[in-house]
Write a structure and sequence with these properties.
Elements lengths: L2 H22 L7 H7 L1 H7 L19 H13 L16 H13 L11 H13 L10 H4 L19 H12 L12 H6 L4 H13 L2
The structure holds heme C (HEC) (2 copies).
One heme C binds next to helix 3 and helix 4.
Length: 213
């Protein structure tokens, strides 16, 4: 194993822990009630409950942490994270509007699905989720996204559990190919992690995450 890979494996979670204090300062309270009124148009794609997207490539927003949601909304608005379907949705929204939307979706109960893979697939995913892949420098997902997939709210690390498999596959692939760069302020950590994953590993992880709790 290369030294750099070993460093990446051990340092990524430490680096993440070090970011906690800085990230929490960016968290500001929004008003869920004001967000609810604005979310009517969002429901057309993300569902009335924020967790029943009309297509499995659309993410659940319900129960996602506020800091992560706010950050993504800001990046989607500026085009730093490019989502064609959402391009027109955030035009003209103020910073307070985005905060209210983030607070609203964070206040809704999350929804859990079920893993559908066979034993081999679940074992593969669980091994990576809990222990990473040492030889490839892939850090354990649980270090940042928590053993139960609930993420880390103060740090703004997203909840993964319950996300539809197709959405997660698309995101991990996009990070791996360098197409999603919204982790820039986190030092590109998700691109680093996903860079070591094969299609098979990504599919197994995405399936496993649907039911992780
Ligand atoms: C026309 C359909 C559509 C509408 C309307 C829409 N979205 Fe989305 N949204 C998407 C799709 C598709 C994605 C994921 C795209 C991707 O990255 O693959 C997404 C992603 C997101 C994400 C990122 C979630 C994550 O886990 O990273 C947030 C936050 C979000 N939408 C919030 C909203 C809000 C708030 C509104 C209303 C103001 C809204 N969306 C309206 C289709 C839509
Ligand atoms: C060192 C910390 C860290 C590790 C380890 C890590 N992640 Fe992440 N993950 C993050 C951060 C931070 C983000 C948000 C980045 C952004 O804004 O794009 C994220 C985002 C994601 C997303 C996108 C969520 C969404 O709603 O769009 C997925 C999927 C994901 N991670 C899966 C994984 C998997 C699977 C593993 C293990 C193979 C893993 N992560 C390991 C920190 C980490």
């Amino acid at each position: 194993m290369q030294i750099r890979t070993a460093l990446n494996f051990f340092l990524a979670p430490l680096l993440a822990a070090g970011l906690l204090t800085g990230a929490s300062a960016a968290t500001a309270a929004g008003d869920p009630e004001a967000g609810k009124a604005q979310a009517l148009v969002c429901a057309a794609c993300h569902g009335q409950d924020g967790a029943s997207g009309i297509d499995p490539t659309y993410p659940n927003l319900a129960g996602q942490n506020e800091a992560y949601l706010l950050k993504q909304l800001r990046m989607i608005q500026t085009g730093e994270r490019q989502i064609l379907l959402m391009a027109g949705q955030l035009i003209g929204k103020t910073e307070q509007n985005l905060r209210d939307l983030a607070a609203y979706y964070a206040s809704l109960p999350g929804k859990l699905g079920e893993a559908a893979g066979d034993d081999d697939s679940i074992r593969l995913a669980q091994g990576i989720y809990r222990g990473g892949i040492y030889e490839k420098g892939v850090a354990a997902c649980s270090a940042c996204h928590a053993p139960n997939g609930q993420g880390n709210a103060p740090a703004g690390f997203p909840v993964l559990s319950g996300q539809p498999k197709e959405y997660t596959i698309a995101q991990l692939t996009a990070y791996r190919e360098g197409e999603r760069k919204s982790d820039e302020s986190f030092g590109g950590m998700m691109r680093g992690v996903a860079g070591g994953l094969t299609d098979k590993e990504i599919a197994a992880l995405a399936d496993y995450l649907q039911g992780l709790h």
